[in-house]
Specification:
Layout lengths: L1 E3 L3 E6 L4 E7 L2 E2 L3 E6 L6 H5 L2 H4 L1 H7 L3 E11 L2 E10 L4 E10 L4 E8 L12 E5 L6 E8 L11 E8 L7
Antiparallel strand pairs: 1-2, 2-3, 3-4, 5-10, 6-7, 7-8, 8-9, 11-12
């Protein structure tokens, strides 16, 4: 399914339920599709509590995605909506994504997770991951920074920051 506007085109693979391409003014912005991510970098406290072992189901869940339905609708003249329902088999859970694509090129992504088991371990992260092609190495953000800002780093100042993607890793 391809939805296009004046300066953009977005393509979805109905079999996998993923957004496989997003071009803006002829430049491709997607190298790997947007998918759920439940895993994060570990802190020393996590390692001491052996959470990387206790929470391993979530690491495996991040790579487990099975689309069960893709529905494309047009709720308004300048809006297309793509609703994806999927299973996360590793944790027997359901996941839903809704992409609302506006004629302006704005895309609003909503995610919903429904746990399938009552005894799932603590969730380390609820997010999404997308890989962009080479050439997009500069990142800017407004928020705490400029260094990593886990909850125990309350001295981080809120502001506008920027840097190279390679500088954003923490160990």
């Amino acid at each position: 399914v391809t939805i296009s506007g004046q300066a953009f085109a977005v393509r979805f693979d109905k079999a996998s339920g993923t957004m496989t391409s997003l071009t803006y003014r002829g430049t491709e912005l997607v190298q790997r599709p947007l998918l759920p991510d439940f895993w994060r970098a570990w802190t020393d406290n996590d390692r001491g509590a052996r959470l990387q072992t206790k929470l391993d189901a979530w690491r495996r869940a991040s790579g487990s995605w099975d689309a069960t339905s893709v529905l494309v609708t047009q709720p308004a003249p300048d809006v297309v909506r793509v609703d994806v329902k999927a299973a996360i088999p590793v944790i027997a859970s359901a996941y839903a994504l809704s992409y609302t694509i506006h004629a302006s090129g704005d895309i609003v992504v909503e995610a919903a997770f429904s746990p399938g088991k009552p005894d799932l371990p603590m969730l380390p992260r609820f997010g999404m991951q997308l890989a962009m092609p080479a050439g997009f190495e500069l990142v800017s953000w407004f928020g705490p920074g400029p260094e990593e800002t886990y909850s125990d780093r309350i001295e981080a100042r809120v502001g506008r920051y920027h840097g190279l993607v390679d500088e954003q890793w923490t160990e």
